[in-house]
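Exercise 7. Given the encoded structure of a 393-residue chain, write a plausible sequence.
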């Protein structure tokens, strides 16, 4: 058993180049006169300044992160927690300390039975991945509900550490936990863990698909993000879902989602009707954009109306335009098929799409683009996008 300690803040990579340059902070008061249908322009700063370069984009990405925290997800904790890690057999013991309080989480690692270490790995929210992970890839089981309970609000180890009155929602707390697992893996090193931290993926389905999407957006150490059937709150855009609901669709919109599970900050409740959504200076195409240019494959089930399939298609299409602007259009994929009510059960027709992205981003395989949209799902993306791709350089 080996135990090491370090300051986790050194590894919390949220902004790339923005960490080494002067990016402006958000004003105390924001007045955003948006549109109930039009998705905000990724290539324009909140103050109207155009995004023209990669350096600009790193600051715009940091701005989007701050907007998501202020309006929807709640804040990441200030300061730098200290992480201590041990590995005994296949179990990590990660002790996180902030001030005078400490918590311990114990994810497990399942290593491949063959091949040579260090291995790529996928962190599975909920414990077990419902996507087919190749036998040559390690699986790290993560009990994210232990970090932040879906219900009631303020229960879980994250809140034991930071207090039950903290305004952070469950999704960002789960993402914070993923980052602490990455801290521990880097701390112990591949000679101990047998894990290659440059080849890490994250996945989850349904509510855990939402969590995987947020984790992949907020921690740039994640090479591949694989959200499955996350629906609204993952790849679904609030504005598109809102229009669908107004037109009679039996989908989950923002107004409904905030009345149940505690995934979002209470602040978000102010912005869930049509007029409120128009005031949001972001939507979830920008959450996808935060992942760029790293790997992102969105897996959706168009057979479940509740998941708002047209919203996923429209929102993903808009998010992919950020990847295109960064010269990495093929790094974002979309894989959608109708398979009825078999939620979180991947049909055989989509297995090759998942394998293509795992091969490319975790196993150093050949590049293959994936963009599979159910032909029965019809979306006019131009109805929601009134801006164009800017080639950043």
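Solution.
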């Amino acid at each position: 058993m080996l135990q090491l300690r370090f300051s986790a803040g050194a590894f919390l990579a949220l902004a790339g180049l923005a960490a080494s340059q002067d990016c402006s902070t958000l004003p105390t008061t924001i007045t955003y006169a948006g549109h109930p249908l039009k998705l905000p322009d990724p290539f324009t700063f909140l103050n109207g300044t155009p995004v023209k370069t990669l350096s600009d984009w790193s600051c715009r990405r940091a701005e989007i992160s701050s907007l998501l925290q202020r309006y929807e997800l709640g804040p990441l904790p200030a300061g730098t927690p200290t992480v201590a890690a041990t590995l005994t057999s296949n179990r990590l013991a990660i002790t996180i300390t902030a001030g005078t309080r400490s918590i311990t989480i114990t994810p497990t690692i399942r290593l491949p039975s063959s091949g040579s270490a260090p291995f790529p790995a996928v962190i599975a929210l909920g414990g077990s991945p419902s996507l087919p992970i190749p036998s040559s890839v390690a699986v790290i089981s993560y009990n994210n509900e232990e970090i932040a309970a879906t219900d009631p609000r303020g229960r879980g180890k994250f809140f034991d550490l930071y207090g039950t009155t903290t305004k952070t929602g469950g999704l960002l707390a789960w993402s914070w936990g993923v980052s602490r697992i990455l801290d521990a893996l880097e701390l112990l090193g591949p000679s101990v863990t047998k894990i290659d931290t440059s080849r890490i993926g994250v996945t989850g389905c349904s509510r855990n698909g939402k969590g995987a999407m947020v984790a992949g957006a907020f921690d740039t150490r994640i090479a591949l993000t694989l959200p499955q059937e996350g629906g609204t709150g993952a790849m679904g855009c609030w504005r598109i879902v809102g229009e669908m609901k107004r037109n009679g669709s039996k989908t989950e919109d923002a107004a409904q989602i905030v009345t149940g599970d505690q995934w979002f900050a209470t602040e978000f409740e102010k912005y869930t009707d049509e007029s409120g959504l128009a005031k949001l200076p972001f939507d979830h195409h920008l959450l996808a954009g935060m992942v760029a240019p790293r790997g992102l494959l969105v897996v959706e089930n168009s057979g479940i109306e509740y998941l708002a399939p047209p919203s996923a298609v429209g929102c993903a299409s808009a998010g992919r335009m950020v990847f295109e602007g960064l010269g990495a259009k093929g790094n974002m994929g979309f894989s959608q098929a109708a398979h009825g009510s078999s939620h979180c059960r991947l049909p055989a027709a989509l297995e090759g799409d998942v394998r293509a992205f795992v091969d490319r981003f975790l196993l150093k395989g050949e590049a293959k683009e994936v963009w599979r949209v159910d032909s029965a799902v019809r979306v006019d993306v131009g109805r929601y996008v009134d801006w164009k791709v800017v080639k950043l350089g």
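Remark. DSSP finds twelve helices and twelve strands in the chain. Students should compare their own answers with the one above.
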